[in-house]
Amino acid sequence: MRQAAPLASRACTLAFSHFDPDVLLTTLPVQTQLAIWIQILQEWGGIAAITVYQPVIFGLAGFDASKAGWVSGVNTITYMFSTYVGSIFLS
Length: 91
What we know:
Elements: H1 7-15, H2 21-45, H3 47-52, H4 54-60, H5 65-88
Helix pairs in contact: 1-2, 4-5
């Protein structure tokens, strides 16, 4: 008789059906630590200032408030998709 898989293994299989759960559970601490250090390095590198103050920067560049908001939003969404693509190929 086949035993039921542990709950954590089944949850990983459902959430990440295209990943091997055993590999995912062994690399998850490494990926978490890497994500934390990437955020710290981004803060030190100045990208956070650009992300936080985008509307002000674009406003100083001559865009009106509405257009500065739209450009900031598109730029932030582009950052999000770029990070997602990078995270897929990370490990």
